[in-house]
Amino acid sequence: MTPSRDISRLLEIMAALRTPVTGCPWDLEQDFATIAPYTIEEAYEVVDAIARGDLDDLKDELGDLLLQVVFHARMAEEQNAFAFGDVVEAISRKMIRRHPHVFADENGHLTPSHVKEAWDRIKAEEKAERAARRPQQPAEHKSLLSGVKAGQPALIRAMELQRKASTVGFDWNDPRAVLHKIREEADEIEAALDGGDAEELAAETGDLLFALVNLARHVGADPEAALRGTNAKFERRFGYIERALEAKGRSLESASLTEMDALWNEAKGAERRQRL
Q1: Per the record, which residues fall in region Disordered (predicted)?
Q2: Domain 149-221, CATH
């Protein structure tokens, strides 16, 4: 089978991978749940390529993300739920409907804010239509937080939950108050360490992360971007440790934590001097 610019070839490849007996054993044993983490991972890699300004890499990462859509669509087709063409038709219909100023006979100049308002209004209408088509369920409590999407990455969703709650005054007015909460959560983790309960430790760690997101929100920082920056800093400084040890004919395994920590501080100092 040869590659092609036509989407139909990619669909054929995925169908071949999922064909019992002759297909790929790994692909055949996957389902929606097992593929979902890869879908998220590929979306992040697209974001990373954009952040690095690497358009060649972006092309490849977009292909990887497209493969995720094809994979999910193929599994749905095997269950007679929907196929890739149905996915394309659904998003095409949605884009046409949400852009009446482009695809319908509507005159007049629209600003980006007007477009956003129209998008949100039409999106709400679509949501109401979908709800009306579903079997009637007992009335549920309508929470202020119901509109926060569940499928978002945890850091982003934490930020949105906090923003939503702040609209009714459930918020701190001073970042220092959030800092106090962070210290409180850290103390609770220390207490949980004494108890040795893994579930409690996980819960308390989540509370600390949530408080840190709150601090990021109050100081105007994007927690996701901030963490990506720290990841890059960690890689850079750890790389300094590796190169410094290699220059001495040493390996990471032969170095003590004290030695590595000293080299870490060297890297940190060098970065600080470069900024001056």
Answers
A1: 126-145
A2: 1.10.287.1080
Residues 6+ apart with CB under 8 A from 97: 122, 126
Nearest to 154 by CA among 209, 226, 228, 200: 209
**pLDDT given for residue 7 in this prediction:** 95
Q: What is the pLDDT of residue 140?
A: 64
Left, alpha or beta for 17 (phi > 0: left; psi -120 to 50: alpha)?
A: alpha
- Residue 109 has a pLDDT of 63
CA-CA distance, 104 to 39, in Å (whole number)? 34
> Could you tell me the mean pLDDT of each successive run of 10 residues in the chain, 276 residues long?
90 96 95 93 90 93 97 98 96 88 66 75 75 65 80 86 93 94 96 92 96 96 90 95 96 95 95 87
Contacts of 92 (CB under 8 A, 6+ apart): none
Using left for φ > 0, alpha for ψ between -120 and 50, and beta otherwise, residue 121 falls in alpha
